[in-house]
Amino acid sequence: MIKQKNSFSTFLKLLLFGLFLTANSTLYAQTVVSSLNELMPFLDDDHVVVKMKPGIYTITSEDVKKGLYKKELKLKKISKILLLFEGNNSTYDFTGVTIKIDTKVHQSFGNFQVHELQIIGNNNVLKNLTLVDEGSVYDAPTLRATNIVMDGSHNKIEGFTVTTKGSFPYGYGDAFGKGGKSIIRHRKHSACLVRGESNHLKNSTFFHKSYGHCIFMQGANNPLIEGCYVQGEVRKTDDMLAEAGTGSPADKVDFMTVWGYKLPAGYMMSKGEAGIRAYDGGETIIDGKTYKRGTSNPTVKNCVVKNMRTGVTVAHATGKKYVENCTSLGNENGFSLGSGEVVNCRADVIYGPAYASTYERDVAYNADITILSSTEEYYNGSGNVAYIGGSGHKIIFRGSNQGVEQGLQIKVGGDKNNIRLLHGNLPNQNDFKGLDFELINLTNFPVFLSDKSSGISGESLGKISNSGTNNVLEFIGE
Fold first, then answer.
1. What is the distance of C-alpha 292 from the center of its chain?
2. pLDDT-derived band of residue 5, with 50, 70 and 90 as boundaries?
């Protein structure tokens, strides 16, 4: 009897195990698709694993005219979406897949903003897609466009390579406008908008040849940007001014900027906008519900940003702001957090400062930044290695002394000499007080303590010019 019971018990266990394997093999069975038409029906499914056959796939304006891409969402404005991922707990593997999107597609919907790829479900993984805008950098959308939009919660995009093209005007950065008031009406094209709850952008590469942000956050709580590489393009203002008499967009407005004065020579500007940026407003969709809110608790780790208007700027976010092991190369500005932590980061200062305070109210900005040398020509119109305002910080600079011979300096308070802040423009962003913080300057760059500085302590290998009050910064150089 005992043997019979044991045999029956073993049979039941084997039966249950077999059912478990059957259920899970059904749950995790991989579906292979070999065209975009075959992929589309799976984009609103839950608990699917979809692999696309390696190859090159295209989306053209003719496809839009045929009604193949008709998804839309309503936020502030109606968005038209080419690939809308609505399901939950699904994985989409695009290893070896390139999707080329004709830049004419961004005009084919008419006066709507276009999202090439958007996620609104939860707990999804999209990986290893190469997404390419095929066309001219001047082939602008009718209204605006974005390659990727992440809504929903706990989604992950990993291993993407994105080439962004098509905007107007292109080649001048924000000199003639960016939002609201503008001298030249602009039609932006950004690369990746992170919204939602705890969404994760990982190990992705962006080649940004467009006027618009590369990676930016709106309405995002606990976003994580990790292991990403961003590369834009820069241009001297001297080269822009050389367009005089050519009939270019800038020439047609006599190079009169949105800042109220003619474009000055001597500065390097990014043709795009921010590399990685957070906003204090926006909307997002989670579980079918729309939320209006800012960005909170952003984390940026192990990223490299090159040739953009800023490297990592998350000053407008709230909560904990944390940036670790990131590198800023050839940007107009490196790191701006308002408050928060910059840990083990690096920046060159060839075109602008490694760090700049955003507002005079910046407080408790704690940073450890290594200044990098470069093989590129120095074209730093501001003359600043760093511009520090606000209070309660601890800031450490170490690394290369290259650029000392260029007359670059670490500046505490006073005039930023930023291209956008000349002739008294935007006074709330300039001429800050710098109060009661610790500065450790382990480079030979000189430190200028303006008459707006007070209570600055610490030490400096570089020479110190003190026009402030109650400053006790100690010179430790030779």
1. 20
2. very low
- Other Cβ atoms less than 10 A from the Cβ of 196: the count is 25
Give the Å distances, CA to CA, from 321 to 40, 277, 315, 339. 37, 12, 8, 7
At 478, the pLDDT band (50, 70, 90 cuts) reads: confident
Average pLDDT, the chain: 94
Distance CA 380, CA 332 (A): 8
Using one digit for the tens of pLDDT, what is the confidence trace for 102-115?
999 999 999 999 99
Domain spans in the chain, listed from the N-terminal domain onward: 31-332, 364-478
